[in-house]
Amino acid sequence: MALFRKTKYATMNARPSAQTDIASKCPSCKTIHFKEDLEKNLYVCSDCGYHFTLTAWQRIGITFDDNSFQELDARLTSLNVLEFPGYDEKLARAQENSGLVEAIITGKGRINGEPAYAGVLAPEFMLGSMGAVVGEKIARLLDKAGSEGVGAIIFSASGGARMQEGIFALFQMAKTSAALSRLNDKGVLYISVLTNPTTGGVSASFAMLGDVNIGEPGALIGFAGPRVIQQTIGQTLPEGFQRSEFLLEHGMLDMVVPRKELKATLARLLRFHQGGGRR
Questions:
Q1: Are residues 38 and 84 in the same domain?
Q2: pLDDT band at residue 2, thresholds of 50, 70 and 90?
Q3: Strands 76-78 and 114-121
Q4: Cα separation of 150 and 199, whole Å?
Q5: What per-residue confidence (pLDDT) applies to 147?
Q6: pLDDT single digits (tens) 165-176
Q7: Number of structural domains, the chain?
Q8: What is the rounded end-to-end Cα distance, in angstroms, of the chain?
Q9: pLDDT band for position 20 (cuts 50, 70, 90)
Q10: How far apart are CA 143 and CA 57, in angstroms?
Q11: CA 63 to CA 118: how far, in whole Å?
């Protein structure tokens, strides 16, 4: 059964911005920032340090060296194999509004000179939900990284598996985990960067399987949301529950890295894995 197809033309060239207004209010401290100032500060609130959500292309832009990122599998798009009511229309709206074909961009580039394969989930496309195309592109990405011995990074920002694709979306949890197992067998580095939010089937599969798991400050990370958990167990949850800092304290992350330091940290990890000082 075909779960996806190649589009005739890729629409990703629009590369939209998540912050299109002249100014944005910080959701945490309510400070108003002009768009130009936010861009200079990598979309981090200069008053309280709140990390605004980035689009996939914004993430790529602040992480990879100029003009080094080359996209892979840009034309893969989902099919409505379950004939889920309204799914075709929802996909079309998501493509039009985001300028993307699907909820992930994959490719290869350089980070401070270090080569890396990367997958960047796009929260602007159906909340970065994982369907057959997302799983397929991640599996292809990891297999390419393994065949070349080049480190792989996935930036997660997702509400979880895509309900409109049902069991086929859930299959991607096993598919991506199996691809990571193949990568591990070849001794190739995998870095998982968990951003706000990383939940559901994404958090329960490739997002938490990194050789190094990195969280952005304040990111919501977990399977079910804290409100669902609190209602289920009937208890008040600890302060900061399911945030990056809480997970770091309880051993589920290796580090929490502010956005301004993330590029240098990733480059250092990639360089260290390759033996360091080879140039």
A1: no
A2: confident
A3: unpaired
A4: 27
A5: 97
A6: 999 999 999 999
A7: 2
A8: 48
A9: low
A10: 23
A11: 10
**Structure tokens given for 39:** 């861009």
Residues 57 and 45 in one domain: no
Do residues 227 and 189 touch, judged by C-beta distance below 8 A?
A: no
214: Cβ contacts below 8 Å, ≥ 6 apart? 191, 192, 193, 194, 253, 254, 255, 256, 257, 262, 265
Whole-angstrom Cα distance, residue 178 to residue 185? 11
Asked if residue 8 is part of any domain, the answer here is no
Q: What are the tokens at 269?
A: 């990890």
User: Per the structure block, which two tokens stand in for 118?
Assistant: 């990367």
Same domain assignment for residues 141 and 31: no
For residue 15, being part of any structural domain is answered with no
The residues with which 44 forms a beta bridge, in sequence order, are: 51
| Entry pTM | 0.92
Give 93's pLDDT tier (boundaries 50, 70, 90). very high
Mean pLDDT along residues 111-139: 98
Task: Give the span between the Cα atoms of 177 and 252, in whole angstroms.
Answer: 17
The per-residue DSSP string of 188-210 comes to --EEEEEEEEEEHHHHTTGGG--
Helix/strand/coil for 219: coil
Q: Are 205 and 142 in contact (CB under 8 A)?
A: no
Same domain (yes/no): 45, 171: no
The 3-state DSSP class for residue 30 equals: coil
